[in-house]
Amino acid sequence: MAVHRLAELTWEQVRDLDRARVVAILPVGAVEAHGPHLPISTDLIIAEAMAERGARKLAARGLEPLVMPTLSYTAAGFAAAFPGTVSVRPETVAATVLDIATSMHRAGFGTLAVANAHLDPAHTGALASVAEALNEGGLMRFIFPDVTRRPWALRLTDEFRSGACHAGRYEGSVVMAVSPGLVREEIRTALEPNPASLPVAIGEGKSTFAEAGGPRAYFGWPAESTAAEGEATIETLGKILEEAVMEEFADD
User: Fold this and answer.
1) Which of 29, 42, 145, 192 has its CA 20 to 30 A from that of 112?
2) Looking at the whole model, is its pTM more than 0.70?
């Protein structure tokens, strides 16, 4: 089966897709600060890499993946104080994703999977609320493998599991694998480790990167990033998306 990209098709080509086999994939990220060394588009790069790798795996399973244009603007309150970050209200995120799902359902599609790379709790909470509304309402299958939770989180890197992973080795490695020219190498290699855990800070009631101990909007070990680790992470993310989708189709 082929991987389709919605933005490249005509409406008649979309009309003629096999609805029963199509899995629409929505990459979701944020436009937000990622340290002094990574681009503001870091989450978008990771989400698109996850969507593309997962789509290829699903196509090999006989499904027809339909990769949608990336949803770029979302709740990014932790980074809101940094220039370049664009943050919208969580209820706006939920309403937007729900409207996207409703539009796809209206066009006859029954499955929408999210390839998410943004981990702000307001954002993941908004996606979880959409999943609950759609799956309980029976409108369509909405598949959201939240990588911050089990079992998916256990599949990712040690730094990711530590919670000190914003613009660190985990994210930096993926960007190095996909778009190395966007990494400010001279800055990255000189950055000191910042082992402050964001989940711990969130549990303590902190609500910004600065409060959490990240005055330059990075956490973790960015100087240790490698393209090889980034490629391995993309493979894992693609596998997570594949498995989450196939679990749903196994019930058919």
Assistant:
1) 42
2) yes
Amino acid at residue number 79:
A
CA-closest candidate to residue 18, choices 116, 118, 109: 109
Ordered by start, the domain boundaries in the chain are: 4-249
Q: What is the residue whose two structure tokens read 């002094």?
A: 36
Coil, helix or strand for 71?
strand
Backbone angles phi, psi at 189, to 5 degrees: -70, -15
- Classify each residue of 198-218 as buried b or exposed e, where b means 16 or more C-beta atoms within 10 Å of its C-beta: bbebeeeebebbeebbbebbb
CATH entry 3.20.20.370 includes domain 4-249: no
Token representation of residue 12: 């008649």
pLDDT in tens, 196-224: 999 999 999 999 999 999 999 999 999 99
